[in-house]
Design a protein that fits this description.
two-stranded parallel sheet; alpha/beta; 2 domains; 183 residues; four-stranded mixed beta sheet; Large ribosomal subunit protein mL43; Glutaredoxin; 27% helix; elongated; Ribosomal_mL43/mS25/NADH_DH
């Protein structure tokens, strides 16, 4: 281990809200664009705001976007994530296309993982080369394409009858009794 890790914050890398298990949840919660209306260094960010910001906001309704004009300051974007972390990015003298790429990077990353010394929850002297166990490790791959609910894959036939099914059975029994009495 090198000494450069001593200056990084220490933390675990985990998927917040079990991201990716059920559905994808965008981790970017809020982004604040701070820029100068007249400075030449803010030109690229102003172009991004004029041309692409509305489209970004429409495509990402879960992300709150703030614009904060400031006089004689360099342009900055502050991204806040669901786990509470903040990432500051300086956009001074950046072009419109560079800013597009950096905004996409901020949107898709979890937080500033690059500046984190990674730790593990468990430690072993003999690590497995097969990877960690998950609940889906030994499941039948046929489940991926099966039409569910399916009796073959579960005990669905032992479930209690619904009220609708009970009423349907009573109605059919009553119909049979009426047919027998009519004969």
């Amino acid at each position: 281990m090198s000494n450069k890790n001593l200056f990084f914050k220490s933390g675990f890398v985990r998927a917040p809200l079990q991201n990716g298990v059920g559905r994808y949840v965008c981790q970017l919660q809020r982004i604040v664009f701070k820029f100068c209306k007249s400075s030449g260094g803010s030109r690229g960010l102003r172009d991004y705001i004029e041309q692409d910001l509305v489209q970004f906001a429409e495509q990402n309704p879960s992300v709150v976007v703030y614009l904060k004009p400031r006089r004689h300051r360099s342009p900055v974007a502050v991204a806040e994530y669901l786990n509470g972390s903040r990432v500051w990015m300086n956009f001074n003298q950046k072009t419109h296309s560079e800013i597009l790429k950096w905004i996409e990077n901020l949107r898709t990353q979890q937080d500033d993982v690059a500046a984190t010394r990674l730790r593990k929850y468990q430690y072993t002297d003999h690590p497995s080369i097969q990877g960690p166990w998950t609940p889906f490790t030994f499941k039948d791959p046929e489940l991926n394409v099966a039409e569910l609910p399916n009796v073959k894959f579960g005990a669905n036939n032992r479930l209690p009858k619904t009220a609708t099914e009970e009423l349907r059975l009573l109605f059919e029994k009553q119909k049979l009794e009426d047919v027998k009495t009519a004969e």
